[in-house]
Structures are given as C-alpha cells and as structure tokens.
Amino acid sequence: MQDRTSVKFIWVMILNFIITIAEFLGGIFSGSLALLSDALHNLGDTGAIVLSFFAHLISKKNKDQIKTFGYERAETLAAFTNGVALVIISFFLIIEAIGRFFKPEPIKGNIMLVVAIIGLIANIISMAAMHNDSKDNLNVKSTFIHMLSDALSSIVVVIGAIFIKIWHWEWLDPTLTILVSIFILYEAFKIIKNAADVLMESNPSIDLDQVKEIMLTVPEITNVHHVHLWKYSDQLTMLDAHVNVQSNLETAELETIYNKLEQKLSSLGINHITLQAECTRGLKEDMIENNKND
C-alpha cells in the first residue's frame, strides 16, 4: 500500500474512533438508542478498518516454507471476523429496541440531533478522503463502503432526532434502530458469505461448461477432467485441471498449449492455472468427479 493511502487509513481510523466516542456519550446523555446503535455501527466499522489495514499489511508478506501460498487470505479472515461481529451487534440492538417499545425512555432530541449531525459530517469527510484511492484498490473500496453505510446510518439518526424534537415521536427511535440494524445485518451476511466462499474455495460464479468449451478449442486437447476452480483471494482466481492430449506431443508443444489456455481463460478472470497433461488416463471422466480422491 502506498504511504499516502496508509496515512489516509490512519486518519480515517482516528476520526471514526472520535465519532464513536461522541455518539456513545451522546446516546447515553440523550437516551437515544438509535444514536447508540449508530455508535456501535461506527465502532464495528472502526474495528473493521483497523483489521483491514493490518490484514492488508500482513497479506503483503512474502511466501515462505510454511505459508507457500503466501498471506493474502489474511484480508479474507479479517472480513469474515468483521461480518460475524456485525451480526452479533445487530441482533443485540434489535433485542434492545424491541424492549424500548414496551418500556420507553425519554429522549433529549437536541443532544441527539447535534451529535448525529457531527457524526454525519465526520463520515462525509472520511468518504471524501478514501474516494479517489477506492477506484483502484479493492481493500480501500471496502473501507469506503463502510463509510458510506455510516453516513446513511447517521442520516437516519438525524431524521429521527428532528421528528422526536418537533413531534415527540419517541417510538421512532427504536423503530429506526431496528431498520438500521436490519441494513447492517444484510451487509454483514453478504460479507460473511463472500469471505466464506473464498475460505471454502468456492467457484466464483464461473460457468464450468464455458471453461471446458474454451479449453477444447485447442485442437490438441481431447478431454478435460478433474477440474478445481476457486477464488483464493480478491485478486487471485485459480484453476487446476487434467487435460487429455495426443500421445505424440513433446514438452515444448505442451508449454505452447498451456500458454494458449492461459490467454483464453484470462477472459473469464482466471489468472492462475495449473494443468496436468495425460494421454488415456481419465479420458472418459467428467469435469467434476464425485466421491473420489483427486
């Protein structure tokens, strides 16, 4: 990561931590559960930014004899952890909000409104700081999306504070809390699913039939079997396959075939290919063989 981007990360982390403390205090003194929920949202996002930042640094470590694939999945583990934490926080807030319907507490709308506006301004500043770098860096982009969700959450709290201040609709506070929590849950489950798919080495929605069709356009290949296609990290999609070829091919010719396949399959986003050439073994086998050790 470039030094300029690293400095932005640090400033955004500090700014979000300050927002979190301010909203926690504002929520306690105003009695606003929506403000407390936004504070917890910001706390989760601050933790996410910290984890993403350090996970990114770890992911840049060189491969070694223990981690022969390298450390890129540190970012995936951080994303999965952040997602689980957000789910737990969201369920806690929903339970607290439901309790407020049956046992409402007075809310000081003025404090709630001032703190919410400060939080919104700070979130907009954070978004502006990360916007340019988010165009070319997926990790920075995820941080930008966190800031966007914070800004939306702050907007909801501001609206709630205005209604509570003018019309004293205190029931709106737990209602908005539930809505914000549902939104966080939705985003958290997407993060968890995407991270789990990477950790479980799932196919990143690439059509295997299309893969086979492309590979069979090379005349020397007669069959493709024992295929494994998975997303190792945000930047790396891998393919491992056995291909049946003519028995009279030499090593140099096989290397030419491999190069052709790398170029053809790159159009599908596959950027790391390992192939095993065979003549007759597996000639009648399918791409995916069930209940067999590969």
Automatic annotation (TrEMBL):
It is a multi-pass membrane protein. It is found in: Membrane. The chain crosses the membrane at residues 9-33, 39-58, 79-99, 111-130, 151-169, 175-192. Residues 13-200 form the Cation efflux protein transmembrane domain. The keyword Nucleus does not apply. InterPro entries: Cation_efflux (IPR002524), Cation_efflux_CTD (IPR027470), Cation_efflux_CTD_sf (IPR036837), Cation_efflux_TM (IPR058533), Cation_efflux_TMD_sf (IPR027469), CDF/SLC30A (IPR050681). The keyword Transmembrane helix applies. Residues 204-278 form the Cation efflux protein cytoplasmic domain. Keywords: Ion transport, Membrane, Transmembrane, Transmembrane helix, Transport. SUPFAM superfamilies: Cation efflux protein cytoplasmic domain-like, Cation efflux protein transmembrane domain-like. GO terms for cellular component: plasma membrane. It holds the Pfam family Cation_efflux. One of its GO terms (molecular function) is zinc ion transmembrane transporter activity. PANTHER family: CATION EFFLUX PROTEIN/ ZINC TRANSPORTER (PTHR11562), RE54080P-RELATED (PTHR11562:SF17). Belongs to the cation diffusion facilitator (CDF) transporter (TC 2.A.4) family. SLC30A subfamily. NCBIfam families: CDF. This is Cation transporter.
